[in-house]
Write a structure and sequence with these properties.
2 strands; about 10% strand; two-stranded antiparallel ribbon; 5 helices; Arc Repressor Mutant, subunit A; about 110 residues; mainly alpha; elongated
Length: about 110
Amino acid sequence: MEARRDVFQAIADPTRRAILLLIAAQAMTPNAIAEEFQSSRQAVSKHIQILTECELVKQEKKGREIYYHINAKKVNEISEWVEQFKAIQETQFNQLDKVLLTLKKQRK
């Protein structure tokens, strides 16, 4: 059984993040995606393969062409996971604000 790639390792690569941004706007063929980068079609295909293995992109065959589009459900799962940490951080900043405000009032 093949191990599934880690989604965070996949999005750590700037080229893969750029590919995600590209196809978020519209589905694209591998050739169309490759035209946007200074790398070979094979290199871009490898990036697309990794994104597909992580379920960040899906492919759809239309005639003889394969179009890749973003998997919004998977991206939302990642966003929700990260959002937890944003909420924790926000709480900590609010607590720090209260402490600083208290210290400021004590100095007066």
